[in-house]
Specification:
The chain is an alpha+beta fold. It is built from ten helices and eight strands. A hairpin with a 2-residue loop joins strand 2 and strand 3. Helix 1 packs antiparallel against helix 2, helix 3 packs antiparallel against helix 4 and helix 6 runs antiparallel to helix 7. The longest helix is centred in the first third of the chain and has 43 residues. 29% of the residues are buried.
Length: 322
């Protein structure tokens, strides 16, 4: 093998090495200068390859030499387009993860990403909405140091979030010392009414433990949680302005849930008839059933008041499953 041929093969190998290195750098950094380098190296490599075989392919090359020189570049541009699409999909998944991780559990976020297409625009859907409020906390907080108030609320919100998300619920927002949670969005949940009621009972049970600790630090004082639960159609999705958007739901069903929470005494869960009709009745015997007037309604609403005591059997069964 003569020196010229060896030098040619060495140069051709170096050019192909340049193609590979430039392509790897471009894939990693997405910098235009690396894309330009890849195209130049490909043009050079294809031209050298064609020159090496021009004797055998003379007739074919004479007709298609220019086109053949650009084939590798075209192939790379197609490859680059496919890579860009992959990056866009990845960025979309990361955006969904970052957005919904504020509201739902990592398990639900994973399902949303796997689903591929997320409907986050305003959409009408049947939801079960849960509102909680700590009874008497506003008055008692005036006696407490600000740091103590924040520490207590953080602990309460942490436990509430854990309980709500345990059954694919969504934390909509915290309002003062209140919690708003939603079931059946963004993922559909078959038994969303029962999931919400069961978690409401668990929240009451959990708060009894928190209240015991609170009374040790504040003898003579006591706290309790009132909860309202309602099921109905509402609009759910990204709602807000161009500069600030949040994933939430609005509608009469939401307002009614809030009103029911206002009627619940400490330790009670006031459940609307719409929600209660979706429950297996034997599992959730009410402490009482009654009709109440709520703001915004011309007629009284039939509600069912549940407590930890009235549903102790269901809670015991739930603990066994865990």
């Amino acid at each position: 093998m003569d020196f010229a041929r060896v030098a040619f093969l060495f140069f051709l190998t170096w050019v192909f090495y340049g193609v590979v290195r430039s392509a790897l750098h471009y894939k990693k950094k997405r910098d235009f200068k690396y894309l330009l380098a890849v195209c130049l190296f490909l043009l050079l490599a294809s031209d050298l390859w064609l020159r090496a075989y021009e004797v055998r392919l003379q007739a074919f090359m004479d007709a298609f030499r220019v086109i053949l020189s650009f084939v590798p570049v075209g192939a790379f541009l197609v490859f680059n387009y496919l890579e860009e699409q992959k990056l866009k999909e990845k960025a979309g998944r990361e955006k969904v993860t970052a957005f919904f991780s504020r509201y739902v559990s990592p398990h639900v976020v994973k399902k949303l990403v796997e689903k591929g297409r997320i409907d986050v625009g305003g959409k009408r859907r049947q939801l079960t909405i849960l509102f909680t409020d700590i009874r008497g906390f506003t008055t008692l907080s005036e006696k407490m140091q600000p740091e103590e108030v924040v520490a207590f609320l953080n602990g309460y919100f942490e436990s509430s979030t854990r309980i709500v998300q345990a059954r694919e619920g969504t934390i909509d927002k915290f309002i003062g010392d209140a919690v708003m949670a939603v079931y059946n969005a963004p993922l559909e949940l078959k038994n969303h009414a029962e999931a919400a009621v069961l978690r409401a009972l668990e929240m009451q049970e959990d708060f009894e433990k928190q209240n015991t600790e609170f009374k040790k630090k504040h003898p003579g004082d006591s706290l309790g949680v009132g909860i309202g639960v309602n099921t109905g159609e509402a609009v759910v999705g990204n709602i807000g302005s161009k500069s600030y958007v949040e994933y939430t739901c609005i509608g009469d069903a939401v307002n009614t849930a809030s009103r029911l929470q206002g009627k619940a005494a400490a330790g009670e869960i006031v459940v609307s008839e719409a929600t209660y009709s979706l429950l297996p009745e034997r599992k959730y015997p009410p402490a009482r059933a009654e009709e109440i007037m709520v703001k915004g309604k011309a007629k009284p609403l039939k509600v069912f008041v549940l407590t930890v005591k009235s549903c102790k059997k269901t809670l015991a069964e739930q603990r066994k499953r865990k």
